[in-house]
Amino acid sequence: MIVTVSSQSPTTAQGAFHVMKSAGEVMDVIAAYREVGTYRGAAAMCGTTHKTVRRIIERAEAGGKAPDRKGRGHNYDAVAGLVAGKVKTTQGKISAKRLLPIARAAGYEGSARNFRRLVASAKKAWRRDHHRGRRPAVWTPGETLVIDWGDAGGGLHVFCAVLAWSRIRFVRFAADERAATTLALLAECFEELGGVAKVVLADRMGCLKGGVVANKVVPTADYVRFAAHYGFRPDWCEAADPESKGIVENLVGYAKRDLVVPQAPFDDLSAANVAARVWCTEVNAVAHSEICAVPSERLERERELLGALPSLRPVIGTSAVTRKVDRLSCVRFGSARYSVPTTLIGAVVAVAEAGGRLLVTDMASGQVVAEHGLVAPGEASVADEHYGRARSAPRRAVRPKTEAEKAFCALGDIAERFITGSAASGNTRLAGDLAELAALRAAHGDAQLLAALERAVAFRRWRASDVRSILAAGAGTPQVVGAGQALVLHLPEVPTRPLSAYAITTAGGEVS
Question: What is the pLDDT of residue 492?
Fold first, then answer.
């Protein structure tokens, strides 16, 4: 057997090997090795590398076949069985981070990165032998509507629904995930679609789930009545299996990325729902990447297979209660008072709570006549427009009864102010002072008495003797004026002399 190596390609993986001398002489590599006994010596003689010579010799000794490769060991071989057992016990759920301390205790001394590779390989092998057997969903037109809730942040929750065959998406925001809110949004979704799907597939929501028996979900009585009213069958996903409703899980994530993140924070719930309606119109009017069709166009064909909407929407949540409007033009709800228009005093109205707001409806016309935010028990929520004006400050008016009181109050507002101030100062002799003031009025006249009363009120002098002192002082007393105004004083008149009276005269009477 002659194996030669070419000088143009010193190493090859397949076929014969040729070694070419400068003179073109072919030299047997095996003969050269037998002659010198070393790989490097034969390589120097043949003009190739010692690795090529070694491969040729090993292949010749193996009968012309490539020798078996020796397996390279790994630093985690000692704990490979331990990892495989843990992965099998936990059904592929355990993490490398949780397994590493156990492997360290078992003697593993390699890096955490190399150990993660071992765990990933063990999980892959376990999943290959324990595949769940899932397959792509095949949707039927008019069959399934999938719903779910998501957290939008800022106290808002996002309700998402997808009509499975046409991929029509419905998104709304709410302040909570209660049963009444869920059913109200589901009813709005049916009205938006123009029909009712045969099956509504939901997660095991606590607001719609009454219990679970032998893995069978028991819906609440309200949900059963709602489903019977609309004519659909409630269906539920498997527990801890988000893949069974991945179509709506993808919508929740899409709505958060494309709607909530770019436009948040929303000012209020109404603004958020306006943005949600606009967003749904946009995404339903473009081609869907999965079905390569426009969802709104598909809905036109699917709507023919949807169930008909009932003529009336059912009562969702707590039914309204009736209240009679009292004489204060208020109704009581939850031990608190809420105002209504005064035209409804004595009428019976319907009161209902929805979304943290109290709605008062006129039962005769069916219109909402008042809307209030809920307040704590014992408090009152009063709207000025219900009374036609803003609340005025309380005023304790002066109401004269005796003849003396009536005569004094006839002087006008200054007299009432004097009585009010004197009473507030604790003047227990006010009734007697009124008789004395009547005498002063007769002596000095109304004008001087009013001026004296005005000065007494300005300087907070509340006795009849104070008024008498002011009258006795006369007009020479300074009058109170505001800051920046001219102070006018009534000065007494005195005789004056001309300047000529001060001229110097001589003894002859001449002016010098």
Answer: 72
